[in-house]
Amino acid sequence: MELTTEERVWLDGEDGPAMRRAMEIVVALASIYGAERLIPVESVQISGVSFRNIGDAGLSFLRGWADEGARVRVPTTLNPTAMDMADWQCQGFSPKFADKQQQVVDVFAGMGVGGGTPVPTCTPYLIGNRPGPGAHVAWAESSAVSFVNSVLGARTNREGGPGAIAAAIAGRIGAYGLHLEENRQPTLRVEVLAQPETIADYSALGALVGKATRKAVPYFQGLGLDVEDSLREEKLKALGAAMAATGAVALYHVEDVTPEAIAGMVPSGDVGILTIDDVRSGYALLSDDVGVIDLVWIGCPHASLPEISRVAEMVKGQHLALPLWITCARPVRDLAVAQGLVDVIEAAGGSVFADACMAIAPVRDLGFSAVATASAKGAYYLRNLAKVDAVFGDLEQCIDAAVAGGWQKPRFTIDGSLAQSVS
Ligand code: F3S
Question: For the packed helices 305-315 and 330-338, what is the interaxial angle rounded to 10 degrees?
Fold first, then answer.
């Protein structure tokens, strides 16, 4: 592989052991995937932050690298932690767990992540980190990878935990995979015959397509989504997150909507075709057969301010019978506080937590065994990672469940749209 003089110096350890270790990882990954050179990255997003997931072994690995002098050289953000870093007592975390989680964040802060004050979130693009079309970045969280590739038109592969840290320290990544134009071409045409309406419908559609296609680059036609739709980004965020969860889709295109499709990228005539004529099975795919739930979770991927605003409108003046937890980035929560939305939600009995992701939290230890969510990705990981029962429905259905104290199984009208159960 061709390395610049500077990269060779780093690899040889002349810039210290932390950089050498980073370069060894970057070069090894680049070699495995057949890259001929390294490219600079504009930003990095690191996953593997929850202490529940990485444990003492992961913490010790991070600390060892930091002790060698590891410092990030490009703007770097962190994925969510297991808990709200300020309000973990209200969530029911033990002081012992909270201390370990704080240590993980402190190590990243010491490396210069977030300028020394990391903001854990899976939606860095909602708090100002929006790489432009064609920008090379190294992001790790699957829904963020999908968004930055597909909706913003930037370029990243889905980095692993150590790979992303190495990229942040070296500021380089191998030129392979989705960094290359030829690998961004659609490999599957998805014809959507029943247009999704709600954001949850997009999530359900994504769950079906992800399950069916695994690693394809889908090109959606017939989605009925307008570039002027005020919910466009939220719908695409839900679509991409779901495809990344049930499959490993890191890039998709939507005809006339996403930047590369607008610029003229179309599938060649010989790609496969997937037809989706109904999104209902996407809901069933991600729901356990339970009526009793003990938590409602909104904010996967992390909630936007408009999403929190919609929840506030729906719960205003209500008295929730079940805990309703909304997760978001801290700057989004701060805005929600400033606009009085958090007060409204808390008055109803709900909570808005920053930093946290329930899918990577010890949900059972917090006392929950069945969770309702408006996110296909959330439901998928609650079942497969957090090991609790999950039910998936649209936002209204989730809020209704929090108010009523139980999950009403959905029924479907004859034209295929989802209706609330009344019995
Ligand atoms: Fe984000 Fe956790 Fe969902 S990382 S996308 S809130 S599973």
Answer: 50
| Dihedral (CA of 352, 354, 357, 362) sign | negative
**Against a cut of 0.85, is the pTM above it?**
yes
Residue 291 is predicted with a pLDDT of 80
Joined together, the tokens standing for residue 86 give: 């300020």
Question: Measuring CA to CA, how many Å separate 335 from each of 154, 224, 283, 400?
Answer: 27, 31, 32, 25
Q: Is 143 in the pocket of ligand 1 (CB under 6 A)?
A: yes
61-92 pLDDT, tens digit each? 999 999 999 999 999 999 999 999 999 999 99
Q: State in Å: Cα 392 to ligand 1 middle.
A: 15
Yes or no: say if 170 and 6 are a contact pair by the CB < 8 Å rule: no
From the centroid of its chain, how far is CA 95? 27
Q: Give one DSSP letter per residue of 309-349, joined into a string.
A: HHHHHHHTT---SS-EEEEE-HHHHHHHHHTTHHHHHHHHT
Name the β-bridge partners of 81.
Answer: 356
pLDDT at residue number 410: 61
Which whole number is the average pLDDT over 25-32?
98
Q: Which residues pair with 141 in a beta bridge?
A: none
381 lines ligand 1 (CB under 6 A): yes
Residue with the nearest Cα to atom 5 of ligand 1?
A: 301
